[in-house]
Amino acid sequence: MFFSGDPTSRKRVALGGRSSKERDTQKLMEQTRMERDRRLWQRKQNASAIKIQKCFRGRKAAKAERAKVREQFLSRYGSYCQNAERCCFCPDSDYFRQLFFFFNARNAGDFTILVETCRGILNLVRDNDNIVSLFAGVDYSAVLALVDHRVKNLAYICILSLYQNSRSHFRQQLLVPDADSVMQATVLLEAVAALIDPKLPWACKAVSYLCQKNVFALFREIVLAERENAKTSSSTGNLSGVEHITGILISHSGQNSCSCPNVDPKFCFSSQMLTVPFLWKNFPSLKGVFSTQGLSQHYIHQMSLCLQNHTNLLPSDISAEYPGYACLLGNILEAAGVTLSQPACPFEMAVDLAAVSTFLLEALPPIKSSNAAMIEEDADSADDIQIVLDKDLERQIITGIDSRFLLQLPCVLLQINVLFGGISAVGDDRSVVAIGAACALLHVTFNTLPLERVMTVLAYRTELVRVLWEFMKNCHDNKRWSSLPEHLSLLPGDSPGWLLPLAVFCPVYKHMLMIVDNEEFYEQERPLSLRDIRSLIVILRQALWQLLWLNPTAPNASAKTTSRENTSKQNPNESIKHRVSIVASELLSQLQDWNNRREFTPPSDFHADGVDDFFISQAVVDGTKANEIMKLAPFLIPFTSRVKIFNSQLVAVKQRHGPHGVFARNRFTIRRDRILEDAYNQMSALSEEDLRGLIRVTFVNELGVEEAGIDGGGIFKDFMENITRAAFDVQYGLFKETVDHLLYPNPGSGLIHEQHLQFFHFLGCLLAKAMFEGVLVDIPFATFFLSKLKQKFNYLNDLPSLDPELYRHLIFLKHYQGDIAGLELYFVIVNNEYGEQTEEELLPGGRNLRVTNENVITFIHLVSNHRLNFQIRQQSSHFLRGFQQLIQKDWIDMFNEHELQLLISGSLESLDVDDLRIHTNYAGGYHKEHYVIDMFWDVIKGFSLENQKKFLKFVTGCSRGPLLGFKYLEPLFCIQRAAGNASDEALDRLPTSATCMNLLKLPPYRSKEQMEAKLLYAINAEAGFDLS
Description:
Elements: H1 20-77, H2 95-102, H3 108-126, H4 131-136, H5 144-164, H6 171-175, H7 184-195, H8 203-212, H9 215-229, H10 241-253, H11 269-272, H12 279-282, H13 284-290, H14 293-306, H15 324-340, H16 347-363, H17 391-400, H18 403-414, E1 416-417, E2 422-423, H19 428-448, H20 455-460, H21 464-477, H22 486-489, H23 499-513, H24 518-523, H25 530-550, H26 564-570, H27 572-597, H28 613-619, H29 625-632, H30 639-656, E3 666-671, H31 675-683, H32 688-692, E4 695-700, H33 714-727, E5 735-737, E6 743-745, H34 756-772, H35 783-789, H36 804-814, E7 828-833, E8 836-841, H37 856-870, H38 873-883, H39 889-892, H40 897-905, H41 913-918, E9 920-923, H42 931-942, H43 945-956, E10 973-977, H44 984-987, E11 992-994, E12 999-1002, H45 1008-1020
Parallel strand pairs: 3-4, 9-10, 10-12
Antiparallel strand pairs: 1-2, 5-6, 7-8, 11-12
Region (Disordered): 1-26, 556-575
Enzyme class: transferase
EC number: 2.3.2.26
């Protein structure tokens, strides 16, 4: 309202958006664009309509012209070509020109004309007429182009007509022709066979033309049409027309001299015909043609070049049960048995066959054994698409990779002389190719087919282990691992050269060791010498450390194997690394077991070089690399380090559930003369949580009076030693002794105790409690029973400790050179428990199944399994359930059976008095240089081992020291001066102890003789804790 001093006017801003003028311009541009698009679309419609009309008019005119020519042809030659003569087929005649112009395979009249034409040609040829002169006249070279054109077109329209009518009434004539009939389909097939006869001058051009016109795809449809509609009748030995023509085509294309242009791999014989399910069942004679050495080599080489480069090489699958790659694999494997059995099978063909089989097996879903197929599938996620092959197709593939195939192919590849068991030398490059091809095939086979069908053949009937070992040994000695060809191994070129050989060598050698006897392994040193085995241990140890610690794989070691095929396809390098880490650890563990039976290499050879304090600290943390190594390959870590880890795990559990935790103190009153019954009744009433808590014991002597000792831990130790000695006594009937006085469950325990299984559960708890509390007990278990605590199976080499005589008999059978069937053995075994004999079948129907040279290995396996696993399965199972209430499985898995025995009982060697002296404390005026202390240690050193163990029990409550030495005794051993003055009355006292504190109260005796007499009296008095 008033002048502000600013002469400029304020700029006005419109808040209503764009102006109407601007909006009108935008609308006009949009309308213009739409009009332009409409006119363009109209022009395209008009052009398309013109093209359609032109095409229609053209087709209509052509159809009319064909009808016109057909009428001329029929009027001249007749509806059945009855007026056709020999001259009609000459170059100057327009017979074929007219026929090719109007012919329509779907027209019944045209089809009849074609059949009669072919019949006329066949009749003229049968009348000893020359087919070349029939088509070309006098001079073929003068009319070569015309004759070739007519011949190849005639052959093609014959096959095309069969294809077009393959779903009509001709189908039965196609595959099962009657040689004496004149059925139309047979005439056409015979005419085609005559036209492409390899002896004819135009054969190469005719075959090439047919292949380029995808004739194999037509044949495939013809065969599949028959398969869908009817079962073929049994073969009469006559070649079918389709089979005969296919044989001519593939024989010509497979010739080295053939100059035919290359056919699209997608439409070649291998892609189209070999993907027909059970091809050889319909065409048995074609199988023989294909299996000839040169022909199969050509097509298998062709496949090896194409399969890995053409993702859409194979035609569409017939159904989910018949995928093309599986049908192709089945047909190749079935024919390969014939090909490989021929003399002088080329090395190159074996390499190509291995490459193709590997590629196809890699795509195949795992085929489970009959036993494994009955278990599982519950854990699979709903998102996984399960590919289930037809059972007959599975059977064809499994039968294809039979013992003969597994014997022949590796022998050709690795140049093994099966008859003499020798290994012929091959060049470096050649050997690398052979190793790569063989290992890739076998590795994929292990992942796909049931192992029991494969391993026995490879382990016992080939020299595969020896050949692979020589290859790996040379590479290791030369410190140079050759990279395997990428196209053969299906692994990246930078993958370690030892990866694939180890993936095959380890499981095969491991399987072989299951049936190798002690004499073969230690004395005869077969299949590998002990020196070679020491080198193998180094290779496996270094490979495992590389895979697990230095360069760990991505998949978790505990990942389920059910998804192994998915992992393999997504990342084959990581998958095979994970697989090698498993099989190499299993083999090393097995070799460690052999070394424990009879040492052939220092135990430190199994330990990795890189295990340090940092590694040990990480090993107790879940999810770390060190923890995974501890679970998968614990032998890489020294035994003492694993014991420390085990003890730390026990301490951690005790800290979580200590005396101030949820566990109440449990007090047992135990009668010494009824120790087993009282312990069973009171301990069985405890829950799993109570078992982890403290247990305090009060003993009642034979007079019914409670002993004076107060349990601070020492009485409990004494209780554990006494109860285990009573419970595991063979007189009680729950356990038996081997010839080496080692304990194992009594198979006949049920005949003695009705509640024997409950007792075994109790004994498992008892042993676990001793280990949980760190109490060493003197119970020597048999190795084959300790393996049950690790849930492992026992094999033949464990049998000598149980039944040496049976072991000798089985080894006799294994090496028997005569006819085993003459020994009249059957698949049964006789059990003899307490004079009661029972007969059990090792297999269903075993009473009627005789042992022969072919199945003797199976018989030996079954007998060993029965004695070592089956007979004690119930007792071991209940013992294990009780044991695992306190001791977790992964804690025990850190140790092998030999180490587990040390964990239970400690070392069997003499007591280390010097170690005890170093780790001893003194009180009450004593010190390490006191004259009484010097006398004391001299007396203890002079004791026998038995008296030393009694002394240790007297002062600690346990007759064995800590596993890692007295440094780990809790608390440390202490000697305290007793009897303040040195009066005669005071020196007449006996030494006393407080086992809960590992304390010895020792009067200052004046002489060694007096001290020795007093100590011996005290430790042998067996006065319980009345001397405490």
